[in-house]
Every structure is written in C-alpha cells, then in structure tokens.
C-alpha cells in the first residue's frame, strides 16, 4: 500500500510502498479514504515533542483518519466490514496517511451518511480537543462567556460552534479573512488581533481557550472574571499569573478516546456543525499540504485523500 513515510526528524516525508499492517484481536483494519493533518504532525516531524511522543522510524505520518472497515480482529464484536468510521490513532504510532491503517476498536466512531468521509477525517483531534476543553475541563455552561483564540483554526472553528450550540456567548481572535469565517461560524464578538489588543477590549470572561501561548497566553489572564479559568493548549499555563489574577489554569492534553469521539460526531451531526476545511488534496500533493500545515495560517483542516 502507499503511505507517507518519515525516516528521521526533519527529513522530507516521502510517499512509498509498505506492507498492509497486521491487526491484533482488539483492532480493526481500515481502508483509509482520507487523513487530516494537524500542527502535531509538524511538531513530531521537527522532533520538538520527543519527551512526550517518542516516535520510532520508519514512521507513517498522521493521527486522524476516516474510512471503511475492511476486517475486524477476533475480539471485535461491535464493528463489521464496510462500517464508515473516523478515528484518532496514538501519535507515537502514527499511521493515518496510508492506504490501510490498524485501528484499536476502542478509538472508533461511526460516521453518519450525512457527513462525507473526506471531511469527516478533519474531526478527531481538533473537535475532540475543543470538546474536552470546553465541556470536560472548562465545564462551560449556557449563558457563560468564552474567549477562543484562533477562531479560524482547526480547534477554534469547532470550539466556536460547540460553545454556541451549548448556549454560551463566544468571543474570538482572528485576522484577515478569518474575520468573516468567525462571523459565519457564529461568534458573537470577533477581534482582529493584528489591529486590536483583545486584552483592552474584554473583561469578565468565564473561560479562555488559549490555542496560541506566549504573549497571548500572558495577556489572557487579565480578561477573566475572578474565579474564571484558562485552558492552555500549547504549553503548561503560568501558575504564578493565574494566582495573581485569582483564576485557575490547566493544560489540555488531548488523548485518543472513542467514547468522546462518538459524542463529538453526534454533536456535529445534530447541530449541523461545519467542518471548516482549508483544502482537500490527493496523496501526490502531500508535500504542499504539509507545507501549508507548517505555515500556521491554515483556515481549518488540511485533508489528504488516500483512496
Ligand atoms: N494540548 C493539546 O492536546 C492540543 C490539541 C490540539 C491542538 N493543540 C495545539 O493547539 C494549537 C492550535 O491547533 P489548531 O489545530 O487549531 O491549529 P491551526 O488549525 O493550524 O490554527 C492556526 C490558526 O492560528 C491563528 N493564529 C496564529 N497566531 C494567532 C494569534 N496571535 N492570535 C489569534 N490567532 C492566531 C491563525 O490565523 P491567522 O493566519 O489569522 O494568524 C490560524 O487560523 C497548535 O499549537 C496545536 O499543536 C494542542
């Protein structure tokens, strides 16, 4: 089968032929229709996350995939050949950008017929992270106000829509054509971060989803109400600043979880949530897709079709 292979940190990912993976008794074999890239794939490629995710080479790139089940392991009773699924693989194992993938059954969620598999591939990591941050760690309630940084990115675009569907008021930071995108996704208040300082315009926020870090992280504490919460996605939060502002702060560490993914997929289907897609390219354009992901400017998901 064709696969996108990484032979070392910082080496160019190449398209090559490798054997179809063997599955264990608790796994399924998936014929991959599409895989989506994430900033994590770029960070793994650059070797900056070796302490958290010690990958081994040859490494098949990608965690997020959608496709159809081709075969099931001996212990798998809930799934059958032909099921339309989406899944997030363990980053340490990778394997999504390939003709077939071995997926532990516990990571699977069914994709309803209303969602094309090509776009469904864009769901797992970013929608799962947005959900985990808003509702599991952030405990966001209807009527509360949330600030979501990078509203035109993968996590941000889902977070805006989930928060609105949950009855929250949404503030977001974006730039350029991200302004229109954030309005279309339903944000109540959109701040162009290149032309305005969000920290001077906002106050009494219940929850901040910080997808940026650095200076944005530092300035975000000041917009929270007393007792509010900041959730950091890029690096562990600054505890001293949290204490100084009388707020709490946590790091979001997203892990593959089929039960959450089932909830996320049904929320997307029930609320007609838009899977914001930057581009869908075929496998032979993988290097352009990877360059676009590496730019940090994507407007939603970059998806590579395998079939
Ligand atoms: N901890 C975890 O478990 C976890 C899980 C998922 C993701 N993450 C991390 O979260 C971050 C976001 O992920 P993603 O998938 O949403 O990335 P993405 O889709 O690549 O989003 C990039 C977006 O960031 C915007 N942006 C850049 N600088 C900004 C700033 N100062 N203020 C506001 N927006 C800004 C860009 O818009 P402009 O072009 O307009 O600047 C772009 O739309 C990444 O670092 C990723 O690794 C962490």
Q: Per CATH, which architecture of the largest domain?
A: Alpha-Beta Complex
CATH superfamily of the largest domain: Medium-chain alcohol dehydrogenases, catalytic domain
The CATH class of the largest domain is identified as Alpha Beta
Q: Detail the poorly predicted runs.
A: none
* Arithmetic mean of pLDDT: 97
- How much strand? 25-35%
Number of helical stretches of at least 4 residues: 10
- CATH topology descriptor of the largest domain: Quinone Oxidoreductase, Chain A, domain 1
Overall tally of structural domains: 2
Question: How many strand segments?
Answer: 16
Shape: globular
Which percent range fits the helix content?
Answer: 25-40%
The main sheet comes to: 7 strands, mixed
Bound molecules: NADP nicotinamide-adenine-dinucleotide phosphate
Structural class: alpha/beta
Helix-strand string:
EEEHEEEEEHHEHEHEHEHEHEHEHE
Query: Span from first to last CA?
Result: 11 Å
Gyration radius from CA atoms, angstroms: 19 Å
Can you walk me through this structure?
This protein is an alpha/beta fold. It has two domains: 2-123 and 275-305, Medium-chain alcohol dehydrogenases, catalytic domain (Quinone Oxidoreductase, Chain A, domain 1, Alpha-Beta Complex), CATH 3.90.180; 126-251, NAD(P)-binding Rossmann-like Domain (Rossmann fold). 28% of the residues lie in helices and 29% in strands. It is built from ten helices and 16 strands. The protein has helices spanning 39-46, 117-120, 124-137, 154-165, 178-185, 198-201, 214-220, 239-244, 258-270, 286-295; strands at 2-6, 14-17, 27-36, 59-60, 64-72, 84-88, 100-104, 108-110, 145-149, 169-174, 189-192, 205-210, 224-232, 248-251, 277-282, 301-305. The strands form three sheets. Strands 3, 5, 6, 7, 8, 15 and 16 form a seven-stranded mixed sheet that branches. The chain has a six-stranded parallel sheet with strand order 11-10-9-12-13-14, sandwiched between helices. A three-stranded antiparallel sheet has the order 2-1-4, with no helix packed on it. β10 (169-174), α5 (178-185) and β11 (189-192) form a beta-alpha-beta unit. The chain is globular. The structure holds NADP nicotinamide-adenine-dinucleotide phosphate (NAP). The site of NADP nicotinamide-adenine-dinucleotide phosphate has 31 residues, from α1, α3, α4 and β10.
């Amino acid at each position: 089968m064709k696969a996108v292979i990484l032979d070392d940190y910082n080496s160019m990912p190449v398209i090559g032929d490798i054997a179809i993976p063997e599955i264990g008794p608790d796994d399924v074999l998936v014929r991959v229709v599409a895989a989506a890239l994430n900033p994590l794939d770029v960070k793994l490629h650059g070797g900056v996350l070796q302490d958290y995710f010690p990958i081994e080479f040859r490494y098949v790139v990608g965690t997020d995939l959608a496709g159809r089940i081709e075969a099931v392991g001996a212990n798998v009773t809930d799934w059958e050949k032909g099921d339309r699924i989406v899944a997030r693989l363990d980053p340490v194992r990778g394997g999504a950008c390939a003709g077939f993938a071995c997926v532990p059954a516990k990571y699977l969620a069914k994709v309803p017929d209303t969602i094309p598999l090509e776009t469904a591939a864009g769901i797992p990591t970013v929608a799962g992270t947005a959900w985990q941050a808003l509702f599991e760690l952030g405990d966001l309630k209807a009527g509360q106000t949330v600030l979501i940084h990078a509203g035109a990115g993968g996590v941000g675009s889902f977070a805006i829509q989930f928060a609105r569907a949950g009855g929250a008021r949404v503030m977001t930071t974006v730039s350029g054509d991200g302004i229109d995108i954030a309005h279309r996704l339903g944000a109540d208040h959109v701040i162009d971060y290149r032309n305005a300082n969000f920290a001077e315009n906002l106050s009494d926020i219940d929850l901040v989803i910080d997808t940026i870090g650095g200076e944005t992280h530092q300035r975000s504490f000041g917009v929270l109400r007393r007792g509010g919460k900041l959730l950091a996605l890029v690096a562990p939060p600054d505890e001293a600043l949290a204490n100084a502002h009388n707020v709490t702060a946590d790091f979001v560490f997203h892990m593959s979880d089929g039960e959450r993914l089932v909830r996320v997929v049904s929320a997307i289907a029930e609320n007609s949530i838009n899977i914001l897609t930057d581009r869908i390219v075929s496998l032979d354009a993988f290097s352009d897709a990877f360059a676009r992901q590496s730019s940090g400017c994507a407007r939603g998901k970059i998806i590579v079709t395998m079939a």
